[in-house]
Specification:
Length: about 220
């Protein structure tokens, strides 16, 4: 069953109550145990702050109507199992990408040094691997990702390479802060121009130059 609005905030006690509540939900469908489990569930659900489930448990002791309430309580438990399955699938995907990350790194538009840190992520609707390292005055990020939900259909899996340097506001080595995206061989544009191009594509106002940046800046894997 889902945690109530007032109940479990991640503490051990709350987790135990959740487990007890789920067990009672499943047991409530066993003939002869339903009345007992529904009565036992009421104080457990109240302690968890799940007042909806507590109400269903109270209704569950009634004939006919009670069977419907038991089914509703079990459905909430099934939802939790389905959510857990989704989390497990994401974890499996991350594991596969982690094992392949060193091989994938070799396909980057720019060389990724061995000292680079690797971060594998399962985003909403896509997966990505970020390789980050420092060289000279710049911090580089070469990001491999599968097609994002709002990307053009022909984009597919691609790379985006960025670099940034901290600004120095005074002295003979003074320089402004830089954030840039690689859109061609040794060709960098500002991160602001890149973001503006993405916004223009969403709004349908993409210029020829901006389209060129986005096409070239998403390096095909």
């Amino acid at each position: 069953m889902g945690a109530g609005k007032v109940g479990n905030f991640g503490n051990t006690k709350g987790s135990r109550l959740d487990a007890i509540s789920d067990l009672l939900s499943a047991a409530s469908l066993i003939p002869g145990l339903d009345t007992f489990t529904n009565l036992a569930s009421i104080p457990v659900d109240l302690a968890r702050g799940d007042f909806v489930s507590a109400g269903l448990s109270a209704i569950g002791v009634l004939p006919v109507v009670g069977e419907l309430a038991d089914t509703a309580r079990l459905a909430k438990t099934v939802d939790k199992v389905a959510d857990a399955a989704k989390v497990a699938d994401k974890a499996a995907d991350i594991g596969k990408l982690s094992r392949k990350s060193s091989t994938i790194a070799k396909r980057s538009p720019i060389r990724i040094p061995k000292k680079a840190t690797t971060q594998v992520q399962a985003k909403k609707g896509y997966s990505q691997i970020k390789y980050t390292w420092e060289s000279g005055n710049y911090k580089y990020t070469s990001r491999w990702h599968t097609r994002t939900p709002n990307a053009p259909k022909n984009q597919g899996t691609s790379w985006v390479v960025e670099r940034k340097s901290s600004g120095i506001g005074y002295g003979k080595n003074a320089r402004p802060k830089k954030e840039e995206v690689l859109v061609g061989k040794n060709k960098w544009i500002s991160k602001r121009d890149w973001k503006n191009a993405i916004t223009a594509r969403k709004n349908g106002t993409l210029t020829k130059k901006q389209k060129e940046w986005l096409d070239n800046g998403h390096w095909k894997d």
